[in-house]
Write a structure and sequence with these properties.
The complex is a heterodimer of chains A (about 70) and B (about 190). With about 70 residues, chain A is of the alpha/beta class. Chain A has four helices and four strands. Chain B is mostly helical and about 190 residues long. The longest helix of chain B is centred in the middle third of the chain and has 28 residues. Classes of the chains: A alpha/beta (about 70), B mainly alpha (about 190).
């Protein structure tokens, strides 16, 4: 039950200005920007450096993400 | 989905990309990834990056020679000067990686590519974009677009690379692009 609860814990939100500040203050490679949209949406526009893993594929792609690095997802 | 799986720090961007008023890159995940093999050593990456900075510098030099607008000419010369500083940074990065490596003339002699930062071909980009670079604000918008694409490309290369040292070099170059974008933003505010 505790494990299930953890899976559904909401993550904190940050607004775009906070995200911009975070990106400005952190060296590249020390955090991950994660784009969970579809490829055609990513192709149209994305935040520079964002890693594309569409949401349906996320569960099977967790090994592509470093759990030690902060993640900002959109 | 991430918070219960050992990911220590996860944030949701409020409003998603629609609310994002910062820089945006475009193109599919594979855009220009074929410009590198994916298994390059760190020194090869610096040569590649130097070539792209050099090509972009040539682009700005050509624009400065072709414009009759004095202010625009000065801006293009300034932008070319920024690329020269970047080239210097990239060569310093190379020298750190290979302390007994090539000197600058030899390093430069290895540069053959005409591909600009972001993966754009000089001639094609000139043909498509010169008409849209006739005022300082418009020229700076295009410059920012180029550097945004450049940063995005370096980070996609870093994500693909499995070699830690190569990743590190790509991240450092991407950090320089980030600083470059901040500088262009300030220039944009001055010219607005």
């Amino acid at each position: 039950m505790i494990q299930l609860k953890k899976l559904f814990e909401p993550v904190p939100s940050i607004d775009p200005e906070q995200a911009k500040e975070f990106i400005a203050k952190h060296r590249e490679g020390t955090y991950t920007l994660l784009d969970v949209r579809q490829p055609e949406e990513y192709e149209k526009e994305h935040i520079p450096g964002a890693k594309l893993i569409p949401l349906p594929a996320l569960d099977d792609s967790l090994t592509e993400l470093d759990p030690q690095k902060p993640i900002i997802a959109y | 989905m991430l918070s219960g799986r050992g990911f220590k720090e996860v944030y949701n961007l409020q409003g998603g990309i629609r609310a994002w008023n910062g820089l945006k890159a475009f193109g599919p995940k594979k855009l220009n990834m074929d410009l590198l093999r994916g298994d390059e050593e760190p020194a090869e990456i610096t040569l590649f990056a130097y070539g792209m900075e050099n090509a972009l510098g040539s682009f700005y030099t050509t624009l400065s020679e072709r414009t009759a607008d004095k202010d625009l000419g000065h801006l293009f010369t300034k932008l070319e000067g920024i690329e020269e500083r970047h080239k210097k940074m990239v060569f310093e990065l190379y020298s750190d990686i290979e302390p007994s490596g090539m000197d600058l003339p030899e390093f430069e002699s290895k540069v053959t590519s005409q591909v600009m930062e972001g993966g754009f071909d000089i001639e094609g980009f000139m043909k498509d974009n010169e008409p849209h670079m006739q005022t300082s604000p418009d020229a700076l918008m295009v410059a920012m677009m180029i550097e945004t694409q450049a940063m995005d490309l370096y980070l996609r290369y870093a994500d693909r690379s499995s070699e830690a040292r190569t990743k590190e070099v790509l991240f450092k170059i991407a950090d320089e692009e980030k600083a470059h974008l901040t500088a262009l933003g300030r220039l944009m505010s001055e010219k607005a």
